[in-house]
Amino acid sequence: KEEEEEENNINCTLCFNLLSTKTLSQTKSLISDQSKPYAHENENALQTNYISSDSPTLFITPLIMIRAHALLVYLHHHHPNVAKQLRKSVQDYYESVKEYIRSSLREFLFPSSNATKRCKLQHASTPQKDIPYTRELHKEESGYLSLHIVFLPPSSTTLASYPYPTELLPTLHSYQCNKRKDRKRFRGNDPTNKQGGNPRTNLEKRVQRQLQQLQVNNDNDEEETTNASWLDRNDTLKAIQTDTITMDINKQVCFKYKEKWVQWFDTIKSSSSTSVTDVKCNHIQVAIWRKPYYISGFYTKHIRTVSQTPFYVPYDDSQDKGKGNETTNEPKKGMVKKGTSSIEEEICPVLAKIGCGGISVYNNEEIHKKDEESKNDNKSKLVYGMCKFHASGREDMDVRMLLPFDETICAHKNEEGFMGGRPFVCEVIDAYHMPTQDDLERVVAAVNHDDTTSVNNDTEHCKKKDTDEYDNATTPSDKWEEIPSIRYFGSNPNGVGISSNIHYVPSSAFRNLQSNTEDKVKHYGCLVWSCNVIPTQSYLNDKLGFSPPSSDHGSDAMTPAKSAPRYPLEIAQSTPLRVLHRRSSQIRKRHILSLVATRLSSHWFLLRISTSAGTYVKEFVHGDCGRTSPSVSSMLGSGGSCCKTDIYWLDCEGIDV
């Protein structure tokens, strides 16, 4: 005990006591405290979670390299024989200190006889039996905990009074003065949070600002004292190598340099002779975060006021007839949200709260006072921990996403293996917990607002209704809007539902989500109005390229004919006018794979088409002022003129995965 106490009270000139037993014990205690939010049911988080194989990563002040360089110069000056026997460089000393601390902490994180072997075995004894881990998830360490630790010298003792001799390392001082500021990235004007940043960088910036605040409180005018702890490792090594080369080339300069280095080392050596009983003055900070994992499923949307992600547009003063602000009479500014809700807002918060136990905010980038006072508040929207929503393509806000128009498929929507709706993946970053299968079932029930075990087997409504009902209606939009509950998931009042088979997927499923979009076939249902009169079904078939209907139906039959060999049909689409402001102007080749039309009345008809991915269906119907050719408008026209058509409602009725 006396030896340990004596060891803890000795100040090391080289490593700032970072290798002492007390410092390592303090670090382990900080790790245990920081990991508590990630514990499951008040258990030890380090025992109930997988730890990434590269943990912990360390930042150790490069001042150790400068002091090691001064020590070598001191030995060459006073003990040349001893110096000749030392073949280690300053980089070797720095790495040896770092490796000693890391190995000691790894024994704490991986309490086994062979930590490396245990990492390769993927922590087989860790009690996370309820998480359906696969070999791929283990391979990419999905949902594992990662650690980063910052070790800095004490700033409240005399050790910080002598950071490094700036006159002896002018190159390093110039690096510090000419260091570029971080480039701010524009992330949009909408008020939604954006995911970004890095827990390691955020921790270092947070500690850096704490030291700056401490310096202000102590009225310390020496800026080098604070900045010295955050020297770049590569810049420090480069400056030391430059100093060594300078001493080797110029012997006169070498003698003067050595004298100054020796004097500086004597100064810090004498300051270190004083015993220090409080090692807590060392700046040790720990960051723990959970690596991303991915939850996949399918969603439907049966309300036309819901966007896929929060949809904001710039505020238009003309909408309020120039009234402006009621109090200041100034024009209103900012962004206005469109729609009642969004797919992301209906799924991600529920998954984060119920399934993941919440998202950590500790590893977010700290908001600086200058950023809060500045007009551009993009910095405050950047967070690291987040549940991000990704989908395979997107539909417009006024387009519904339904299950396929087939009673056979709809009847099996809750059976295992059924795939319908639009595929999505939620990327969960820095969550407190990983959801079990029971948690995922609760998420489905909460999003769908119903009991997932109940099935509304309303297959009769999926059958084609008698089209005579449309003949008596001036506008058949109400009939079109009536859809059975069997064609969407759940009973969410905002019209959003998800499939019951949401599950873990590897990161490759997220990466391939958009790349596979171009290979998918999408099915749409449209309610179309035609300016020209449509006298019969056969007339509609002939105009749109159908073969004549079978003899079992009369000329006025309402049943659609089968697609003729005219399809698949290649069309050329210029960038639509409605998206030309945000997309490059070019002509895209797309394909209409199949097309079936059903006459409803003299001016209304249903259109069900299958297209290749990326087809602008609205423009294919109305022609977009001739920018899409051929189109339904051009095919219904006569004498070289187009027939004015308009798509009243549009539904996405299935995606072939």
> Which term fits the overall shape?
elongated
Find the count of extended strands (DSSP E, 2+ residues): 21
Mean pLDDT, all residues: 76
Share in β-strands? 15-25%
Radius of gyration: 34 Å
| Strand line-up across the major sheet | 12-21-16-19-18-17-20
Q: Point out poorly predicted stretches.
A: 113-127, 156-162, 220-226, 274-280, 322-331, 372-380, 452-473, 551-564
CA-CA gap between termini: 68 Å
Count the helices. How many?
23
- Fraction of helical residues: 25-40%
**Class by SSE composition:** alpha+beta
Biggest β-sheet description: 7 strands, mixed
Structural notes for this entry:
This protein is an alpha+beta fold and 657 residues long. The chain contains 23 helices and 21 strands. The strands form six sheets. A seven-stranded mixed sheet has the order 12-21-16-19-18-17-20. Strands 5, 11, 13, 14 and 15 form a five-stranded antiparallel sheet that branches. Strand 18 and strand 19 form a beta hairpin. The relative contact order is 0.10.
